[in-house]
Amino acid sequence: MVSVLAKVIRVRYERGVLKPLEPVDLQEGEEVRVEVVESVRNKLKDLIGVLGESNDEELKRYLEGAWQA
């Protein structure tokens, strides 16, 4: 069994490459597993209006509800 250490870091996606926003302790060529978590706001913006008219106030209410869940 392989031990797994997990650390969450923020990255920025630029020109097809994920760039760490903080130092990482990795060797050149080392492979890691990356989990991409989408912004709730971006996902809701994609869905707003699907079931009818909506506005920024409605988006704000959905976002507040999502963070409380």
What would you say this structure looks like, in words?
The chain has 69 residues and is an alpha+beta fold. The mean pLDDT is 78. Strand 1 and strand 2 form a beta hairpin. The chain has a two-stranded antiparallel sheet. 0% of the residues are buried. It is elongated. It has helices at 40-47, 56-68; strands at residues 11-14, 17-20. It has a domain at 38-69. The protein has two helices and two strands; from the N terminus they run E-E-H-H.
- Major β-sheet annotation: 2 strands, antiparallel
Structural class: alpha+beta
Strand numbers in spatial order across the main sheet? 1-2
Helix-strand string: EEHH
- On the 0-100 scale, what is the average pLDDT? 78
A few lines on this structure:
This protein is α+β, with helices and mostly antiparallel strands and 69 residues long. It has two helices and two strands. Strands 1-2 form a two-stranded antiparallel sheet.
Please render the helix and strand layout as text:
Layout: E1 11-14, E2 17-20, H1 40-47, H2 56-68
Antiparallel strand pairs: 1-2
Q: What tags apply to this protein structure?
A:
single chain, alpha+beta, 69 residues, 2 helices, two-stranded antiparallel sheet, elongated
